[in-house]
TrEMBL record:
Chief place of localization: membrane
MF annotations from Gene Ontology: ammonium channel activity
Alphabetical list of PROSITE patterns matching this protein: AMMONIUM_TRANSP (PS01219)
Presence of the UniProt keyword Protein transport in the record: no
Source taxon at top rank: Bacteria
Transmembrane regions listed in the UniProt entry: 68-89, 101-119, 166-188, 195-219, 239-268, 280-301, 313-333, 345-362, 368-389, 401-419, 450-472
Keywords for the protein's UniProt record, in alphabetical order: Ammonia transport, Membrane, Signal, Transmembrane, Transmembrane helix, Transport
Domain Ammonium transporter AmtB-like: start-end pairs: 68-502
UniProt-recorded name of the protein: Ammonium transporter
């Protein structure tokens, strides 16, 4: 409004000046040419002033509410990792290996967060090609704009809405950290601590960062200014984004990616000493329950925070995380009671994680009934994953990483394509980012979207498997993968860290 009034006043002034000049020209014909030239110059000056005002328009200011929500979400993801995942895993191993698991989770998370700042964020979330980003944000260079004296902005999913890029970078750092930490559960109780860290560096660089780029990198909604540039903008996005794969919070990037790395590690490192002959019972289901509860609480930041705004889609992700997880707990307990005659605390905690995993890609992409269905089906599917599938594979997946995160992640990714349909209560997907128009109910094809989801799953499985095999082989050749039999029998707390979780 202020800009309009300024232009109006400027225009009236020009008209007044021109009128006066023309009157003078009528009384003094000799000076008419000079008078008209002065009037023309005044009009051009007015136009230049208006253009300058447009150029000097202030940069978008991040919404304080969205920024605050994303900072809280980042803290929640840290909570679900350290201590949530650490305690969940720690309670499941034998007492002599408790601290080793806590160490592997905490140190891995810390290392990956640092690597994310150094180069991971740049590889995942800057423009490069369809598979990997570039080096524009090494050491987070450029998140502070020296010329403008302000912080750089990061796009959300709404036109004209931004958050500070440093907040987005921090949020995504926690995703990278927890993904790597999930893997350690597959080969707990027998791997060298140094081997864990070396493997994580390689796998993070060549599997996590590329998959994150392929699934989540795009140019942002404001880049789609018109239909003329839409195709060019899409061609700059990650490969799976170009395909139209839906992954709200990390079904492919986090869970399937980590689960495949875990099962590869379980095969390549080998079974624990005494596996199949000795009882490997969890030493503290109380701590496992505490860890599962912290995971559930923290997962609200993981899923709802992935909306990048405090809006309706964040609320949808929030409520789906609540309902789907509860449905999975009930399903697992029912299935376990039918199989074994009793429902267990371990089963309830595992069911909660199964529901959280399965709803992750769907959280903001499906309706409430769809979310409940995904959670309920995940409870039964993951129960089979840690029993029937585990026996079929024959690997010693210590803490059932593939049975829960692999099976749950794949199921959730595929069912996202089903329940995203507006005909089944889903919000649908964006058909045109220029207008931010959604796919109409009569135009939505469940079969087509499920096929896209399946391709995304297959690419993630193959990519992570290949990188994992190579990474484990390199680590084995350089420092060796597992501890000696004597060290394993003694327990990794003492043999690897020189301390014990419990004093007798």
């Amino acid at each position: 409004m202020k800009k309009f009034l300024a232009k109006l006043a400027l225009g009236l002034a020009v008209l007044g000046f021109t009128g006066a000049v023309l009157a003078q020209a009528a009384s003094e014909p000799v000076a008419a040419a000079a008078v008209m030239e002065a009037a023309s110059a005044a009009v051009e000056a007015a136009a230049d002033a208006a253009s300058a005002a447009e150029v000097a328009a202030p940069a978008p200011v991040p919404n304080k509410g969205d920024t605050a929500w994303m900072m809280v979400s980042t803290l929640l993801v840290i909570l679900m990792t350290v201590p949530g995942l650490a305690l969940f895993y720690g309670g499941l191993v034998r007492a002599k290996n408790m601290l080793s698991v806590l160490m592997q989770v905490m140190v891995t998370f810390s290392m990956i967060v640092v690597l994310w700042a150094v180069y991971g964020y740049s590889l995942a979330f800057t423009e490069g090609n369809a598979f990997i980003g570039g080096f524009d944000r090494l050491f987070l260079n450029g998140v502070w704009d020296n010329a403008a004296g302000t912080f750089a902005n990061a796009a959300t999913f709404s036109k004209g809405v931004y958050i500070p890029e440093i907040v987005f970078a921090a949020f995504q750092a926690t995703f990278a950290g927890i993904t790597c930490c999930l893997i350690v559960g597959a080969f707990a109780e027998r791997i060298k601590f140094s081997a864990v860290l070396m493997f994580m560096v390689i796998w993070f660089t060549f599997s996590y960062a590329p998959i994150a780029h392929m699934v989540w990198f795009w140019m942002g909604p404001d880049a789609y200014a018109s239909a003329d540039v839409a195709e060019a903008m899409t061609s700059k996005a990650g490969l799976l984004w170009q395909w139209g794969a839906l992954d709200f919070a990390g079904g492919t990037v986090v869970h399937i990616n980590a689960a495949v790395a875990g099962i590869v590690g379980a095969f390549m490192i080998g079974k624990r000493v005494g596996y199949g002959k000795e009882a490997f019972t969890p030493h503290s289901l109380t701590l496992t329950m505490v860890g599962a509860s912290l995971l559930w609480v923290g997962w609200f930041g993981f899923n709802a925070g992935s909306a990048l705004e405090a809006n309706g889609f964040a609320a949808l992700g929030f409520i789906n995380t609540l309902f789907a997880t509860a449905a999975a707990v009930l399903a697992w307990c029912v299935g376990e009671a039918l199989m074994k005659g009793k429902a267990s605390m371990l089963g309830a905690a595992s069911g909660a994680v199964a529901g959280l995993v399965a709803i992750t890609p769907a959280a903001g992409n499906v309706g409430i009934l769809g979310g409940i269905m995904i959670g309920f089906l995940a409870g039964f599917a993951c129960l089979w994953g840690v029993n029937g599938l585990k026996k079929l594979l024959g690997a010693d997946d210590s803490l059932d990483v593939f049975g829960v995160h692999g099976v749950g992640g794949i199921l959730g990714a595929l069912l996202t394509g089903v329940f995203n349909s507006p005909n089944l209560g889903g919000p649908s997907a964006v058909a045109d980012w220029v207008t931010v128009g959604m796919i109409a109910p009569d135009a939505y094809s469940i079969a087509s979207q499920v096929w896209i989801q399946a391709k995304a799953v297959m690419l993630t499985v193959v990519w992570s498997a290949v990188v994992s095999v190579i990474a484990f082989k390199i680590v084995d050749l350089v420092i060796g993968l597992r501890v000696t039999e004597e060290e394993e029998r003694e327990g990794l707390d003492i043999s690897s860290h020189g301390e014990t979780a419990y004093h007798k």
